[in-house]
Backbone:
């Protein structure tokens, strides 16, 4: 497959940052800080532009874009809106490929004069073959190229693309899905979408070999037909998960203030997703949770029968309620499976009826239990807690020991990964309550090994039901490589 | 009001722990560890009983219950079920007030012989005027008396009672609501409820001066009429929040294995709660969230108009959607309020239409914004993020500094508490994503000052809607003192 026409703009040789404030490290230097922190300057050129500074934080600074070394492929504009026309002409003269306008104050203000200025700058740049991100957006996060728009983003690239009008939602996804182990091929915040917009990026996503799962946050759809076609094409190749903002009156009003978008109805967007074969996430948490499902072995779940192991009496009762409420089943344990479990599980204070409450303190017994349950004839997936060497129900807490905790977490992941491999049954692990460093490490390692981890039984149940519904609807999701 | 007849059993002078294992600190000594850790022995007597040990962890041990010093008011039974008949006779001879049977293996096993033994032991003890907790339960957490059934529970007493058949759910509530700042008057895990059960504890809760809000997890209702009357009486005095487990087929089967309970239907339980004036929580998260609402100023919210401040563009859009979906309103900002906000908020990159997105880095401007919004004529409550001295949208992360972080969190709480006081409008603060120590400190301090904190806009929206629905249904909730 030949490279997509948009591909070069995700791989700039050098970036000029126009309008970066001078002085020592300060908040307004955010983009500069992020690129430095992600070591963009090591293999590329990074050129701050500011006529009032010789250098900023040890990096040589240039008075105008025209004074920077060649080549510059990508420009990040931090200048005020009134300074944009001059920058546009300089970008054309410089021969850049793309300009990202962090600069806001255009069509989203509702001011007709500023909307006209936005249209003008885009058509001037497009005529010269230059593509535009924004205005009013955070731009690009491309970890394989060391490009990031905030400090602290994961440096490692991954297989999920996220396309978002909103920079806040882009950060939310990178940080919070990132904390759960997900890594990204590209994340794009495109704001007002005056030139490049959702359908361009979805089309690119379908072709991008680094992207295996496509996710997007959409406020307004400017070109309904193009958008639908792009979703359909992408969803034929890869799982596509879409979240629409502004589906209520209050949300639509907010979207209009935010990116000048005119939002549509839930019914229309839902129908669009169904017809195109994409999954409509109802909330941001849903988008996170279904992304986890689509990038782990949970994706291959074959049916509704859940083996629920651990969690303790009343928690098991509520968990069974939550699974049943989501349309899943917690079928009674087959007699042969019960017999195998009773070989080593005592009767008092336990239950081998599904949900299985073994109340055991040791990881080996837990592993044996999980393996037997996973192999039961009516079980399609197993939902359980982290099989860590926990203490009993009334046991004392141990003093913290970071090294031992990490090793224990990794051993627990290894046990589940092995069981998942051996039985061919997906495992879902619940990590509830305040996250400890051990639990966070467990969750990230588990994800890396293809195990789905959720913060609550309700969110797990929704995600499992979503995958099953999605598969039923389209008879086989596109393959994740 | 004279003391409730059950009051003495929550204030035992001394506790005997019968069947505590000997040896150095070990997991099976859980109850003993918890009582020692909560310093029960300082002002009371704590007597481990084990014929094979002289002392356990430095505490003198007695061969039988009859050998312990007088008085012993409460016995915790860790002996196996077959040893229970002897213990029962000794408890009667010793003249104790109450026995808590951690011992399991009775009616919940479905074995008729064990069910008969359970009935027998209860009637023997009751005839002697001794009350029974359990069997098959974790018993009591009474922080004002230094009684706890797990190590690590908060030592401070509070105003919330939780009554639970399940020990796992009791721990969940103590730990996870505890982490959000809630403190407890009494938590009772009563298991099979062979003697004392939900209606007894609800009746006690209505009279207990230390309890201001009553919460309960119920699996099976053994005495429908008594239970309904107890809920009605308690709900007339104090907010009562009930969570029912086993409302689905799978959940009911789990409940039967767990505490031998026969569960009822959602419709019946829902009707019972409505008629009695209690709130039915749909999930454990709901129970947590409505408890937060019922014990903070959110309880007094007067209407549906939400002022939504901060969070950034796309997050504001999704937040407005979530509030609208829960039946709340995000009304347009009145002109006069807009004028006041525009005195210090620039136009580009911001919005003063509700949701208000000021995109500001400094806490003072945020405080001014919040105060103006809270006073707007169409606003009944304000939903916002922690007003910490955050960096801008593209800013660098600061290096950690625990002391400064704590001070900053406390200053932020102080600002919101002052605004809540001055404007009379409840504030709801969202603390999302992975909890940092700073955010945890913020959340707990905020709760202490009567500010409701939620982990997501969806959970906040549900809790706000719940309080409004509850008030509409019964015209004024009972007062929290």
Residues:
């Amino acid at each position: 497959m030949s490279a997509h026409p948009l591909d070069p703009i995700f791989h700039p040789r050098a970036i000029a940052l126009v309008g970066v404030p001078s002085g020592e490290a300060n908040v307004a230097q955010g983009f500069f800080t992020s690129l430095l922190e992600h070591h963009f300057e090591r293999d590329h050129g990074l050129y701050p532009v500011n006529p009032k500074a010789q250098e900023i934080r040890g990096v040589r600074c240039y008075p105008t874009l025209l004074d920077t070394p060649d080549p510059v492929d990508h420009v990040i504009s931090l200048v005020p809106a009134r300074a944009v026309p001059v920058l546009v002409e300089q970008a054309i003269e410089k021969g850049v490929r793309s300009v990202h306008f962090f600069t806001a104050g255009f069509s989203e203000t509702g001011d007709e004069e500023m909307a006209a200025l936005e249209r003008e700058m885009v058509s001037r740049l497009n005529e010269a073959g230059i593509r535009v991100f924004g205005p009013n957006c955070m731009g690009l996060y491309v970890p394989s190229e060391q490009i990031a728009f905030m400090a602290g983003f994961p440096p490692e690239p991954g297989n999920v693309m996220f396309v978002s009008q909103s920079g806040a939602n882009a950060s939310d996804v990178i940080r919070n899905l990132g904390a759960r182990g997900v890594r990204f091929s590209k994340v794009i915040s495109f704001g007002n979408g005056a030139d490049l917009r959702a359908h361009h990026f979805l089309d690119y996503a379908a072709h991008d070999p680094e992207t295996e799962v496509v996710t997007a946050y959409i406020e307004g759809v400017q070109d309904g037909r193009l958008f639908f076609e792009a979703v359909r094409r992408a969803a034929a190749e890869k799982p596509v998960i879409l979240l629409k903002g502004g589906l209520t009156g209050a949300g639509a009003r907010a979207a209009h203030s935010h990116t000048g978008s005119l939002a549509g109805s839930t019914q229309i967007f839902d129908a669009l997703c169904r017809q195109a074969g994409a999954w409509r996430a109802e909330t941001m948490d849903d988008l996170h949770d279904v992304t986890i499902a689509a990038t782990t072995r949970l994706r291959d779940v074959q049916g509704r029968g859940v083996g629920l192991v651990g969690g303790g009496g009343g928690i098991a009762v509520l968990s069974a309620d939550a699974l049943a409420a989501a349309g899943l089943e917690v079928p009674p344990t087959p007699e042969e499976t019960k017999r195998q479990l009773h070989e080593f599980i005592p009767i008092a204070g336990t239950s081998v009826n599904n949900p299985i409450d073994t109340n055991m303190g040791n990881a080996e017994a837990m592993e044996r239990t999980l393996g037997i349950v996973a192999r039961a004839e009516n079980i399609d997936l197993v939902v359980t807690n982290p099989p860590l060497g926990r203490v009993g129900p009334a046991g004392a807490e141990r003093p913290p020991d970071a090294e031992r905790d990490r090793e224990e977490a990794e051993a627990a992941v290894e046990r589940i990964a092995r069981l998942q491999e051996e039985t061919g049954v997906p495992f879902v692990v619940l990590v509830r309550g305040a996250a400890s460093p051990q639990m966070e490490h467990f969750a990230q390692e588990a994800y890396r090994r293809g195990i789905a981890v959720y913060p609550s039984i309700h969110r797990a149940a929704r995600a499992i039901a979503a995958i099953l519904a999605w598969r039923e609807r389209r008879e086989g999701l596109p393959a994740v490589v």
Notes: The radius of gyration of chain A is 25 Å. Chain A has three domains: 7-133, 156-294, 300-393+400-474.
